[in-house]
Automatic annotation (TrEMBL):
This is BPIB4 protein. Residues 1-24 form the signal peptide. One of its GO terms (molecular function) is lipid binding. InterPro entries: Bactericidal_perm-incr_a/b_dom, BPI_fold-BPI/LBP, Lipid-bd_serum_glycop_C, Lipid-bd_serum_glycop_N. It comes from Furnarius figulus. Residues 29-244 form the Lipid-binding serum glycoprotein N-terminal domain. Pfam families: LBP_BPI_CETP, LBP_BPI_CETP_C.
Length: 450
């Protein structure tokens, strides 16, 4: 069921018509609303802005109060609290993120009017706008630069206990704060954004285990880019086996599909998925007796086998039990079509007799080329693939006893593979493909499209 507002979408693609071409294993489009949520959480809700503004000390304010011609001096002026902070984001094509932070700053200090000294409270509206650019990409990291920082002051309220301040003092305070606050606040924004950058890079550059089979090393592949609708991120996904070797995968240029009304779009490429399937489907060969307690269709397979066995094969009809060996014959290949995913997988089926002296009689060795239908789901931040048998093509590889016509074995081999092999494959895939925690955006209400 489609929902109107999706927190995440996984989109498998092969080769699309390139617009924004990328060469990585995984790409992301992050909407301006999602970026606003991410930065609001990091800067506002987690208290980072308050933390770095706390204790901010402002220069003394000196001037003429026009109250009984008494001079006014305000000293020890410092930030007490950031009230009602709010943040908004605009994505500027080719530039970066335009960040706007609005808040009320509560300041406190000592006010000396003539010989009268008392506490002063100042509440001033500030609006800070800055362009945030990413530069100096290297090995999965970027630096952020704050440019064109503009700090505009709005309404101001000045209060002392005696209430002896005049309008001219308000004007004097506003004038002095307008001259001094931007030089104090803009560097704080720069510090905060650099800390946020480190935090967010940690969500992109991560080594995530894939069960006990190996790991995926996600890393930012290139400098982020912006359009008017989304922030684009390309990630490398190095698929490594547990012993440390990397499973290679090719990358082809492709285009990001439209973001529409989604907060986050993840695009995973076919070659990247093939590398992960190769990692997960390292299933050891299965060898077992062809008996009903192991394979429910064992008796039917026996009967079909005897009908195609040459009459002169006396060992075939002896008392030695049949044995079956299943082994994967090469790496899996995932194929992506519109609204459909399938996996091609080759399996070798050996049917043999093991004599008491240890010698083996190979009745036949079959190659089964399987077409497996893929069902996709998201579980706990992992992409889980489950396979079902769609088609089976059997071919004879060899036979020590002269078997040549294997057409009668197809239904029995299909049953054998469904009963013995598919549970092992789906068990291996049940670990799931770990997805990067892109900018900490939760994958909730996920729509999966192929």
């Amino acid at each position: 069921m489609m929902v109107s507002k999706l927190f995440g979408i996984i989109f498998f693609c092969g080769l699309l018509s390139p617009s924004q071409e990328v060469l990585s294993g995984l790409s992301c489009a992050v909407s301006s609303q999602a970026m606003q949520n991410v930065l609001s959480d990091a800067i506002i809700h987690n208290g980072l802005l308050q933390q770095h503004l706390q204790g901010l000390v402002l220069p003394n304010i000196m001037g003429e109060g026009r109250l009984l011609n008494s001079p006014v001096s305000i000293t020890g002026l410092h930030l007490v609290q950031v009230r009602l902070p709010r943040l908004s984001v605009v994505l500027l094509p080719g530039i970066g993120v335009q960040l706007t932070i609005g808040a009320k700053l509560q300041l406190s200090g000592n006010c000396l009017v003539g010989l009268l000294s008392e506490l002063i409270d100042i509440l001033v509206d500030v609006n800070i706008t800055a362009n945030i650019k990413c530069t100096n990409f290297e090995s999965g990291t970027v630096q952020v630069v704050t440019e064109d920082c503009l700090c505009i002051l709005g309404a101001i309220k000045v209060k002392i206990l005696s209430g002896l301040l005049t309008l001219s003092v308000n004007e004097m305070v506003l004038r002095q704060l307008t001259a001094t606050l931007p030089a104090l606040l803009c560097p704080v924004v720069d510090i905060v954004m650099n800390l946020v950058n480190i935090q967010l890079l940690g969500t992109l550059n991560a080594v995530i285990p894939v069960g006990t089979a190996g790991t995926i090393h996600y890393q930012l592949a290139s400098i982020p880019y912006t359009s008017g609708k989304f922030l684009g991120l390309d990630l490398d996904g190095a698929v490594k086996q547990v012993e440390g070797s990397t499973i290679p995968h090719d990358s082809s240029p492709s285009a990001l599909p439209p973001l529409v009304d989604r907060l986050l779009l993840l695009v995973m490429r076919q070659s990247f998925l093939n590398a992960i399937l190769t990692l997960l489907l390292r299933i050891p060969p299965q060898t077992f007796p062809c008996t009903p307690d192991v394979f429910s269709g064992a008796n039917h397979l026996h009967e079909a086998l005897w009908t195609i066995t040459p009459a002169g094969c006396s060992p075939c009809r002896g008392t030695s039990p049949l044995n079956i060996k299943l082994m994967l014959g090469g790496n899996p290949l995932i194929l992506l079509e519109e609204n459909k995913a399938s996996v091609k997988l080759s399996v070798l089926i050996q049917v043999f007799i093991k004599h008491l002296d240890g010698s083996i009689l190979n009745l036949l060795l079959l190659k089964a080329d399987l077409g497996l239908n893929v069902r996709v789901s998201i579980v706990g931040g992992r992409l889980v693939l489950q396979l079902a048998l769609g088609s089976t093509a059997l071919s004879l590889e060899s036979s020590d006893v002269g078997i040549s016509n294997i057409s009668a074995l197809k239904p029995h081999c299909s049953s054998l593979l469904m009963e013995r092999l598919l549970p092992a494959i789906n068990g291996a895939l049940n670990v799931g493909i770990p997805l990067p925690n892109v900018l900490g955006i939760p994958l909730i209400k996920v729509d999966v499209q192929i």
